[in-house]
Specification:
Helix content: 10-25%
Distance between the termini: 43 Å
Largest sheet: 6 strands, mixed
Structural class: alpha+beta
Shape: elongated
Strand content: 25-35%
Length: 360
Amino acid sequence: MARIDLVDLAHSYNGNAAAPETFALKPVTMTWRQGGAYALLGPSGCGKTTLLNLISGIITPSRGKILFDGTDVTPLSTQKRNIAQVFQFPVIYDTMTVGQNLAFPLKNRGVQKAEIAKRVAEIAKLLELTPHLNRKATRLTADAKQKISLGRGLVRSDVAAVLFDEPLTVIDPELKWQLRSKLKALHRELDLTMIYVTHDQTEALTFADTVVVMHDGRVVQSGTPAELFENPAHTFVGYFIGSPGMNIVPAQVRGREAQIDGHVIALNRSYGRLNGAKIEIGVRPEFVDVAAPAPDLLSAKIERIDDLGRMRFARVRVGETKLAARVPPGFAPSGETAGLRFDPAHVHVYADSLLVEGTA
């Protein structure tokens, strides 16, 4: 178990002399506490797997350091870092039994047979694999194989951290929820540092205590699921987190007002003059209501209404800008035009994609 510190960590697959903007991972400095559950979240190519492989020792960083409990492990191999890594496609020894698969890492390290048997029994019980210990691993289901892969990582008592690289991608959707729940239970039981890479926001938000959102090789925000939803520090976070994502709308902002398409939207905070920047407001669809057209409301054209069961969202257009807005219960739009009512307490202002903190 370990606290992990990343100190000015960066990596380029083209060498250290490559242009900074081409680095797969731009410089990042952050601390992950011992026993925390973390998710690296972002689209394909954003740098999350590169960061995971740097932590595990599969690749050596172009710049910076990695510390485990204050010790520099940057030059050390994966084996010497005592890292367990679970990949998207589990590697299982089909000719061995489930029990032999779980015991394999301990046998390789010369652990005594009695200790191996005890540890395998403990992990098999946690993963609900006890009835299958004497069964050959061949022809097991994908979720069972992923459990074995996870168990091989957990069976070692000296593991500093467990790293997951999109481990549920090949799992049937019905079983994903069960495995995520099992991972959460294991985290609470074992108090291990766990880092989970995914492009699926549902997986990230339900597994992790802290979500690290990545975009274009950078960490753009790190926080709890609630913090990412309520106060996105970057427009990408607002757009990527949530379903539908946050509405990002070009605007002119001054004082406590934003102007969109000639219409004034009230703001909950005051902003000075914002010059020389791309100014946008961000508001989640849950805080924009569709209403009957009125002179005091922003006018929008309704393109369609999506019924998600728990809530209905209207897809609307204001000029060339598309938005999503909540359709209040019982409200039935008449015609193609509607008004949009914004909740000022949930309207954020962004300058060049970064959140601007106004004054109360």
